[in-house]
TrEMBL record:
Domain of life: Bacteria
This protein's name: Polynucleotide kinase
One Pfam family this sequence matches: HAD_SAK_2
Provenance organism: Coprococcus comes
Amino acid sequence: MKSVVFLDVDGVLNTRTTVKRTPYGYTGIDDARVKILANAFKRYGYDEIILSSDWKELDEKHMDYLYLVSKLGQCGLKISGHTPGSSRKRGKGINEYLNLHPEIEEFVILDDVTFDFGKYEKLWERLLITNGIENVRFASRTPAVEAILFLDSIKNFNIN
Ligand SMILES: [Mg+2]
C-alpha cells in the first residue's frame, strides 16, 4: 500500500506576501510552511511527494529546483516524482500518474488553484485548496477520509 501527496508549490509553500526569493529571484519558500507539510506527511505515514507544480518543468540541476529540493530536505522531505504533462492540466496529469501507479491507495492533492480537478471526482474529493498551507479548505463538500485527516493535521499543527 502506498500513499502520496501531489504537491503544488506556489500558493502552498509560499504566498504573494512571501519575502524570500529563489536563487533566480522568484518567490521563495517559507520554512514554517514546509514544517507544516512535513508534520502532516509524517503523522499519517505518507510515502511519497509527487510534484504537480510548474516547478516540475525546471531542469533538476536548475538552481531553483535545487533550492526547492533543499528546502524540503531540511524537514526530511523529498520529491519522488513528477506528474506527466502540462502543469496547467493538473487533474489530467495526476489521473494519468494514478493510472500508471495502481499501487497508490491513498492520496491528497495540495493546490491553490482548482484547474481541471473538478473533471475527476476522485481527485476533487481529495483536493485541499490552500492560500498558504495553513489556510486550507476542502474543494469538495464530500471530501474523502484522507483529505479530512490531512486537513485536520494541518489545522492542529502549531507553527510556533
Ligand atoms: Mg500554485
